[in-house]
Design brief:
The protein is α+β, with helices and mostly antiparallel strands and 508 residues long. It has 2 domains: 128 residues, no CATH class; 299 residues, paralog of FGE (formylglycine-generating enzyme), CATH 3.90.1580. It is built from 16 helices and 12 strands. Strands 1-2-5-12-6 form a 5-stranded antiparallel sheet. The chain has a 4-stranded mixed sheet with strand order 10-9-7-11. Strands 3-4-8 form a 3-stranded mixed sheet, with helices on one face. The longest helix is centred in the N-terminal third of the chain and has 32 residues.
C-alpha cells in the first residue's frame, strides 16, 4: 500500500474514532441528564405518595411558578465534583437495588421519615436556590431561626430540612409551628385518686382528668446488676456486676401514654413567658401545690404515628420529672422516675439471662455474616419486643407485645426510658456488693436511659444494656433562645415510665 493510502486509512480511523467518541459522549450525556429527570427517578423510587406529596409542596405549587424536581434536592448542585460523586454512588446503589430487591416490598413510608430524609437532601442544593435566607416579609421567628442556622450549621451539622419539613413533600403532620392547644381526650372525669389498701396491682385514676394508669406491684428481691464479659455484646459500662437488693415498688405497666401526658399538658401548660430558671426553681420545690407545665411543642410531637396508648415521646428528662411531680400532687402518692437499679430489676422480671425470654443476642441480632445474609430467627423475640425488625421505624401500641414475668410491657424496645440516675461509665464500680436501693452517682451531665428503641438491633435490647441522654445533640435544631426545657427537637424515640413508692401503711 502506498504512503498516501496509509495516511488516508489513518485519517479515516482517527475521524471514525472522533465520531465514535462524540457519539458516545452525546449518548452518555443524554443518559446522564435523562437519569436525573423525575420520570427516571420514579421508575425505581416508586411510591404513589411521593409524587402526590411533591405536587402539594411549595416546590411544585409555588407562588413564583418555579418547579423544583427530584434531582435539585436529592443531589448536590450541578457542576460540582460532589454532584458527580453523588450521582455515581446513588446510581450504583439504585442499580443494585433494582437487581436484588422487589420495589413493592420496600417500606417507603419509613424512608419518608425525617432521619432518613436528612441523609438524602443536601444543604448546598437548598442554598443554591435560596441564596438570600432573609427575604422581604420573613417573620421575626424566621430571622431568629436563620441566624441560629448561620451561626451553628457547621458546628452542629444543621440541616435545612430539619425545620422545613414539608418543603419538598407535603405532610400535614410535619408543620414546624407551635401547637396551640392540647388534643382533646375523651372519657369519664375521675373524682378522686385510687386508694391503695394492699400491695397488689391497681389502676390509678387522676382526679379532674379522664387519665388512668395501670400500676404493677413489683415484689422486692435481689438480683445481679450488669452483665459478665461472656455475655454476647457485653459493654464495659455494664461491669463490674453487683449484687443489688431492691425494695418493693409499683411500676407503670406501660410507658406513659399520650392520653396520660396530654392530661398533664392540658392542666398545666404555659405560654412560655416564664423564664426557665424560674420554672426550674418552682418545679423543684416540694412545698408548692402546683407545677408549671410544658410550653407548646413544635408540630405534632407524635410524628403523625398516632396518640392514645402509644408512648408519649420527645419530652425532656425535666418534663418527665415534672409529670411525676404533677401526678404526685394530683393523687397524694409519691410518683417518680425509676432508679436504674429498679429499672433493670423490673426489666429482668426475675431472670438472669440477657433477655427475660428465651434466646441469646447472637440468635436475634442482624449483625454477623450468617444473620446478615439469611436473616435472624425472630419468631420468639417478636412476641415480646418492638425493635428494628418489626417496628416499621416507629413506636407501636402496647397490644403488639406480651408482658414480661412481672406483667410489664415494652421494657425492652419501643422507646427508650428515662431513669432518675445520672449516667457514669464506671457507675457500677462505685457500688458495694449487696447494696440496697442504689441511686447512682450524686451528680453528672447526662441521665441514664434504658431499654432501647423501635430502631434498635436485638443486641442493644439486652436487660443489662445501658445508654444515656444526649441533651445538646437532641436539641440541635431547636432555634429558640433559650432552648426548650420541655421538648426535644431531634429525638423521637425517648419516653418514660413512672414508679410509685409503696405507702408506709401498706404491709408487703
Amino acid at each position: 500500500m502506498s504512503k498516501s493510502g496509509k495516511n488516508k486509512k489513518y485519517f479515516l480511523g482517527i475521524l471514525g474514532g472522533i465520531v465514535l467518541f462524540f457519539s458516545l459522549f452525546i449518548v452518555c450525556n443524554w443518559m446522564w441528564e435523562k437519569s436525573s429527570q423525575n420520570d427516571s427517578c420514579m421508575a425505581c423510587h416508586y411510591h404513589t405518595d411521593a409524587d402526590m406529596a411533591w405536587k402539594q409542596s411549595m416546590h411544585y405549587n409555588s407562588k413564583s411558578g418555579v418547579m423544583t424536581d427530584c434531582a435539585a434536592c436529592h443531589l448536590p448542585p450541578k457542576g460540582t465534583l460532589d454532584y458527580t460523586k453523588a450521582k455515581i454512588t446513588i446510581g450504583m446503589k439504585d442499580v443494585w437495588s433494582y437487581l436484588t430487591k422487589n420495589k413493592e416490598d420496600i417500606d417507603w413510608e419509613s424512608k419518608g421519615e425525617l432521619e432518613y430524609a436528612q441523609n438524602i437532601v443536601y444543604n448546598e442544593s437548598c442554598e443554591a436556590c435560596h441564596v438570600n435566607i432573609y427575604p422581604e416579609g420573613i417573620t421575626d421567628e424566621g430571622v431568629t431561626a436563620h441566624l441560629y442556622y448561620d451561626d451553628n450549621k457547621e458546628k452542629l451539622d444543621l440541616q435545612c430540612i430539619s425545620c422545613h419539613l414539608d418543603a419538598g413533600h407535603y405532610n400535614p403532620n410535619y408543620q414546624h409551628k407551635a401547637l396551640t392547644e392540647a388534643p382533646k381526650v375523651s372519657g369519664e372525669i375521675h373524682a378522686s385518686a385510687t386508694e391503695i389498701t394492699s400491695f397488689e396491682n391497681y389502676i390509678e385514676t387522676v382526679p379532674g382528668t379522664s387519665a388512668s394508669i395501670s400500676m404493677i406491684a413489683v415484689p422486692g428481691g435481689t438480683f445481679t446488676m450488669g452483665s459478665s464479659e461472656s455475655e454476647s455484646f457485653h459493654q464495659p459500662d455494664e461491669a463490674p456486676q453487683r449484687l443489688v437488693e431492691i425494695s418493693p415498688f409499683f411500676m407503670g405497666e406501660l410507658e406513659v401514654t399520650w392520653d396520660q401526658f396530654w392530661a398533664f399538658y392540658a392542666e398545666t401548660m404555659s405560654e412560655g413567658r416564664t423564664p426557665p430558671a424560674t420554672v426550674y426553681a418552682n418545679n423543684s420545690r416540694e412545698d408548692v401545690d402546683a407545677v408549671s407545665g410544658p410550653t407548646p411543642p413544635f408540630g405534632f410531637p407524635d410524628q403523625g404515628w398516632g396518640m392514645g396508648e402509644r408512648p408519649a415521646i420527645t419530652m425532656t428528662h425535666y418534663s418527665a420529672e415534672t409529670f411525676c411531680q404533677w401526678l404526685s400532687l394530683k393523687t397524694g402518692k409519691k410518683y417518680r422516675l425509676p432508679t436504674e437499679a429498679e429499672w433493670e430489676y423490673a426489666a429482668r422480671g426475675g431472670t438472669s439471662t440477657p433477655y427475660f425470654f428465651e434466646g441469646d443476642p447472637d440468635d436475634y441480632t442482624n449483625e454477623g455474616f450468617w444473620n446478615g445474609i439469611f436473616g435472624a430467627d425472630t419468631t420468639q423475640i417478636n412476641r415480646y419486643v418492638i425493635y428494628v425488625n418489626n417496628s416499621k421505624n416507629r413506636s407501636q401500641e402496647p397490644s403488639k407485645v406480651l408482658a414480661n414475668p412481672f406483667g410489664l410491657k415494652n421494657m425492652l424496645g419501643n422507646v427508650m426510658e428515662y431513669c432518675s440516675d445520672w449516667y457514669a461509665e464506671d457507675a457500677y464500680s462505685q457500688l458495694a456488693d449487696g447494696v440496697k436501693n442504689p441511686k447512682g452517682p450524686e451528680s453528672g451531665t447526662e441521665y441514664v436511659v434504658r431499654g432501647g428503641t423501635y430502631a434498635s438491633d436485638a443486641s442493644e435490647l439486652r436487660s443489662a444494656a445501658r445508654s444515656h441522654t444526649q441533651h445538646d445533640d437532641w436539641l440541635r435544631t431547636d432555634p429558640q433562645n433559650p432552648k426548650s426545657i420541655w421538648w426535644y427537637s431531634d429525638i423521637k424515640s425517648i419516653g418514660f415510665r413512672v414508679v410509685c413508692e409503696v405507702p408506709e401503711h401498706i404491709k408487703q
